[in-house]
Write a structure and sequence with these properties.
With 79 residues, the chain is an alpha/beta fold. It is built from two helices and five strands. The strands form two sheets. It has a three-stranded parallel sheet, with no helix packed on it. The protein has a two-stranded antiparallel sheet with strand order 1-3. The longest helix is centred in the N-terminal third of the chain and has 11 residues, at 10-20. The radius of gyration is 12 Å and the shape is globular.
Length: 79
């Protein structure tokens, strides 16, 4: 699976890719409604992500892909 990080804004995508290159750790913040969706432009690769912060992770296939890639998942608590 070649999972990608997407966005609807080409300028934002370019900036995100530039920022991800020189860093030691990439933290992605995304709510669960974004998973599995394809947007206008690629803004990076899931392979570059070290930590995912999200509200919930209910898709077992996606969760398995994250574990396989050794991506740490932090789920927020809803109040």
């Amino acid at each position: 699976m070649k999972a990608k990080v997407n966005t609807t804004d080409p300028g934002e995508a370019y900036t995100k890719e530039l920022v991800m290159r020189p860093v030691r750790q990439v933290i992605l913040l995304a709510d669960s409604s974004k998973f599995g969706k394809v947007s206008f432009v690629q803004a990076g690769r899931l392979a570059d992500v070290d930590i995912l912060i999200t509200d919930r992770l209910s898709d077992r296939k996606f969760a398995g892909e994250l574990r396989k890639r050794k991506i740490e998942v932090i789920q927020t608590k809803r109040g």
